[in-house]
């Protein structure tokens, strides 16, 4: 009997190792490398993020994944080694299912596969993260799922455990953070940190037009360099939030318009399932229902990321065999190795 497959979520903001129903290890997708003839990684994950503002002249802060693709091969390899070692120790080499965006081309998928092989995990295959929503959606009698991640949003139309069609948009919850930083800089003449913008998003940004929630935030005055405090109100951030989520709904509309008639009819009757950290945006379900006239549901706490559903499928040998050998309509065929 083969070893159980581990799930590795190849995210732009975090790498996550999921195994046997729980998160074994999770780390920000960041490293600090020392600039030498053979650059070496000197800090990983949380340590790298904590030191990001204090790197020396001999060091460089890197985020080796951008929009779900490999931006720096060597750094990705080292970060995968680090995460898998923290999760399983140095001697264990479990087979791995890597969750990736449905919008990747053949070369981008091959590069991710190369990362894991180079890291010492040759028993690896890639699977669209959207398929992790197939089981939670099926339990609820739904045929459409949306994962709103940090930098990308994935929209999938399902039939049983198959992905009929998938769409990927280069926009996510971090886009809201960036829009908040821009708004505060232009309107209040204040520079917010990444954490400050995220706190504002969580505590005051809303998709409700009349949300008067207030939040106190600190930033840096761009002229004096001194710390300054201001109060932001949810209503002034409404246009920022709806700009991002409005774009997501446009992609969702496009996906629905291209869905087979029978599946579209089912979606109209049953609704949509939302997952990912970005699905926790205040007012999302009401916003979707108001603009698309479709019911919207959030995954339960234990399912709101696709890991548990993906683990079930990745360890179903019949599913894996079919998945790897049958080319689905919108999925590029794998290149054969010479």
Can you give me a brief rundown of this structure?
With 338 residues, the chain is of the alpha/beta class.
What integer is the average pLDDT? Answer: 90
> What is the number of helical segments per DSSP (H or I, 4+ residues)?
11
Radius of gyration: 21 Å
Distance between the termini: 28 Å
Strand content: 25-35%
Give me the secondary-structure category. Answer: alpha/beta
Total number of distinct structural domains: 3
What is the helical fraction, as a range of percent? 25-40%
Strand order of the largest sheet: 3-2-1-9-10
CATH topology group of the largest domain:
Nucleotidyltransferase, domain 5
Secondary-structure element series: EEEEEHEEEHEHEHEEEHHEEHHEHEHH
Uncertain spans, ≥5 residues at pLDDT below 50?
327-338
Name the CATH superfamily assignment of the largest domain: ATPase, nucleotide binding domain
- Largest beta-sheet characterization: 5 strands, mixed
Question: What is the strand tally?
Answer: 17
Output the CATH class name of the largest domain. Alpha Beta
CATH architectural grouping of the largest domain: 2-Layer Sandwich
What's the shape? flat
Question: What secondary-structure arrangement, pairings included, does this model have?
Answer:
Elements lengths: L5 E5 L3 E6 L2 E7 L2 E4 L5 E5 H6 L8 E4 L2 E2 L2 E2 L2 H16 L7 E5 L5 H13 L5 E5 L5 H6 L4 E5 L4 E7 L2 E8 L3 H16 L5 H10 L10 E7 L6 E7 L4 H20 L3 H10 L1 E4 L8 H9 L3 E3 L8 H8 L2 H9 L13
